[in-house]
Amino acid sequence: MAKTDIGPLDYKTMLPPVISRNYGKWRYHEIPRPGVLVHTAESGEKLYTVRAGSPRLISTEHIREICEIADKYCDGYLRFTSRHNIEFLLADAAKVEPLLKELESRGYPVGGTGHAISNIVHTQGWVHCHTPATDASGPVKALMDEIYDYFTTMKLPNHVRIALACCLNMCGAVHCSDIAILGIHRTVPKPDNSRVPNVCEIPSTVASCPTGAIKGDMKNKTVTVNNEKCMYCGNCYTVCPAMPIADPDNDGISIWVGGKVSNARTPPTFSKLAIPYLPNNPPRWPEVVDAVKNIIEVYASHARKHERVGEWIERVGWERFFSLTGIPFTDKHIDDFDMASETFRSSTLFKWR
Amino acid sequence: MAKTETPLLDELEKGKWPSFVKDMKQAAKKNPMAEDLLGQLELSYKEKIGHWKHGGIVGVKGYGSGVIGRYSDRPDLFPNVQAFHTMRVNHPTGWFYKTDKLRQLCDIWDKHGSGLTNMHGSTGDAILLGTTTDHLQPCFDDLSEAGYDLGGSGSALRTPSACVGQGRCEWACIDSLDICYNITMSFQDQMHRPMFPYKFKIKVSACPNDCVASIARSDFSVIGTWKGDIRIDQEAVQAYAASGAIDIQKEVCDLCPTKCMEWDGKKLKIYNEDCNRCMHCINLLTKALRPGEEKGATILIGGKAPILEGALLSWVIVPFMKLEPPYTELKELVLKIQDWWDENGKSRERLGELIKRMGMRVFLRAVGLPAVPQMVKAPRANPYIFFWPEDIQKEVK
Questions:
Q1: B90 and B42 in contact (C-beta within 8 Å)?
Q2: What is the pLDDT of residue B246?
Q3: Tell me: the pLDDT tens digits for A92-125?
Q4: Strand, helix or coil at B295?
Q5: Per-residue confidence at B397, pLDDT binned at 50, 70, 90?
Q6: Dihedral angle at the C-alpha atoms of A331, A332, A336, A341, nearest 10 degrees?
């Protein structure tokens, strides 16, 4: 019988010796070129980090290739980042250039540091999830192909964090990103009255609805959905699998902007709605790619140095965000959930465009 | 087996960014599960809809979490992914690996599963993507033998995660790696045996830059901070100014949110009592400025994604807590909060939603924390004040 509750591998046994020796005694860091970090310790020792992009969904063969590279240049030490990048950790400065050459020859993008667009945090999508309104890996690949140069350079006003979640459950917690790509449903779930009595618990299904749109039909041991109240979050489907919500003709993607989690300069903040709906158009989601690219380019040419997307929008105003990007403002942009009135303007202080 | 035709997915092998389709095809060459996964994904691309059903209850002996059940809704077409369950493997804190351990993980997964992974999932686990029910226990046995354990899933403590912290970062105010590892080891039971109203997430960031997004993604956010003065090396400030790489007035002082800095071309003066420790100046002048000496963490709670009652960012409940091993005060606070949540929370109600429903006032009293001004952006502006019975008796006297 296998031992249980042993916990994860002890990270202390996974640290390169240069880190163990200088743990907690790092003094400063520099970014000599995109994708390369040099951390200097109080002792004067240096740690070189080379950051490479990854599709996140990777095969064991790919992991073995990463291991082979890490053995060759890093004495077998590496780490992954919270944005799915691979970081090769080197103690030997002389090995940095050869590593960069090898990564280039093997097709690994090196970058994602400083004022760049790092890898896109994303979810499972059609690959392995039961509630997706879109795919995750596909739109991410299509978009990263198109904005590749922003990963390998550091020419933006500040870094731009992009994340994608394939439904409102937001496994990727995209809701505080500079640009969030969010899969949405747009039609009501349809209770299958022959299956609901067998697979679903009526009270928990009713309770699962944030807007009170679901009513129990005790006589028929099923539920009914009030179409007027439903905003297609899909939470009921998670609780009751017999009321599917996926709709190939109407599911799609919404785009949100201006969120951040860091406290630098301004408080952490949610992303706000920029585009309520774009169609699912696999395999390359051109509408989504174009829309995101447009937002990045308008930001890049209008924001001041160090301004995150949200800080730039706050400075120029949402009126100007919509006029500069050419994104139409609609009634869908005006909140009607529980805290809606806090977002209505109660002053005469606005701009004409 | 005949090669699966994937004309739509083939389009995603083009382009410069690394392609997940290439990885799926690599795995498919060796593994029939991966081959059928590719086929089913192509079908999703054609039909614009997912083909996975809800998970049934599957798992390994002694655990109620760590495995996500997944079944194809087209087993007629793709019999090898009829059952295709995910195993969440708790990552080494900070996602540091030695290649020998990583290869061992690959060997185990090639033996038992599809050969496909996510490095890593959003919560932090190494995700082993897809195996059959009868392989779950043998796979877990091999993982355990190799020193790996499963992470959390369902209504349990989810795998805690931390930023790189003192492992590499000069800004770390707390030992985020050690705190995260200590919490993970102390709360194994909470992770592996779901016993809460819903999920509970803990994330540890070592400074206010919050590189693991703990404020947005965790019910219990630990964010490193400091008291006292920012440490300045004036010579290093001058070196930055002389280098021409940075305009101290424009990029540092003018962008300081509290306007607590003055630069006369020679000396940088900081009015520390006005500083709110946002990190902007330290981020820019990393050789010259450092967080103050008295370090600890701000504890915030309630962060979550939208489901059910809307997204929340965590709220300050302890402005400053010293964090030294074995982190007893921190862990006792976690347990007290979970007890109150467990007692009062409805099914699928996250901690932040419960506090919204019951009131912060009630929560603070229940866990024994004093109300302090650091907790709010502003005091209430409405007159709907609740008083405790003992407040009223005082009034009557």
A1: no
A2: 96
A3: 999 999 999 999 999 999 999 999 999 999 999 9
A4: strand
A5: low
A6: -60
State the helix-helix crossing angle for B99-112 and B133-145, rounded to 10 degrees. Answer: 160
Q: How confident is the model at residue B355 (pLDDT cuts 50, 70, 90)?
A: very high
Which residue in A19, A107, A306 is closest to B251 by CB distance?
Answer: A306
Q: Looking at the predicted structure, is the pLDDT value of residue A270 above 50? A: yes
Measured between CA atoms, the residue of chain A closest to residue B162 is A82
Res B395: pLDDT: 62
Q: Say if residue B1's pLDDT is above 60.
A: no
A110: left (phi over 0), alpha (psi -120 to 50) or beta: beta
Residue B6 dihedral angles phi and psi, to the nearest 5°:
-135, 65
Tally the C-alpha atoms within 13 A of residue A316's C-alpha that lie toward its C-beta.
21
User: Distance, in angstroms, between A323 CA and closest chain B CA?
Assistant: 26
Residues in contact with B134: Cβ distance below 8 Å, sequence separation at least 6, in sequence order: none
The C-alpha atoms of residue A313 and residue A299 are separated, in whole angstroms, by 9
The C-alpha atoms of residue B267 and residue B262 are separated, in whole angstroms, by: 8
Which residues, 6 or more positions from A286, have their beta carbon under 8 angstroms from its beta carbon?
A142
Interface contact B307-A262, CB threshold 8 A: no
DSSP calls for A90-149: ES-GGGHHHHHHHHHHTT--B---SSSB-PPB---GGGT-SS-SS-SHHHHHHHHHHTHH
Of B19, B41, B61, the CB nearest to A127: B41
What's the whole-number average pLDDT of chain B? 96
Structure tokens at B30: 């060796």
The answer to whether the Cβ–Cβ distance between A9 and B148 falls below 8 Å is: yes
State which residue of chain A sits closest to B348, comparing Cα positions: A208
Amino acid, res. B49: I
pLDDT for res B55: 72
From the CB of residue B27, how many other CB atoms can be counted at a distance below 10 Å?
A: 29
Q: Which two tokens stand for residue A66?
A: 């990463």
| Contact call for residues B128 and B146 (beta carbons, < 8 A) | no
Q: ipTM score here?
A: 0.96
DSSP string, A156-214: SSS-B-EEEESSTT-TT-GGGSSEEEEEE--S-----TTTHHHH--HHHHHHT-TTS-E
**pLDDT range class, residue A339, cuts 50, 70, 90:** confident
Tell me how many residue pairs between chain A and chain B have CB atoms under 8 A apart. 347
Q: What is the residue whose two structure tokens read 């919490």?
A: B183
Give the separation between CA B304 and CA B201, rounded to whole angstroms: 9
Is residue A111 within 8 Å of residue A34, measured between CB atoms?
yes
What value does the mean pLDDT of chain A take? 96
pTM of the model: 0.97
What is the dihedral angle through the alpha carbons of A244, A250, A251, A257, rounded to the nearest 10 degrees? -140
**Residue A353 pLDDT level (bands cut at 50, 70, 90):** confident
DSSP structure class, residue B321: E
| Chain centre to alpha carbon of residue A87 | 19
Whole-number Cα distances in Å, A325 to A36, A302, A349, B156: 33, 11, 21, 43
The H-or-E segment that residue B17 falls in is: none
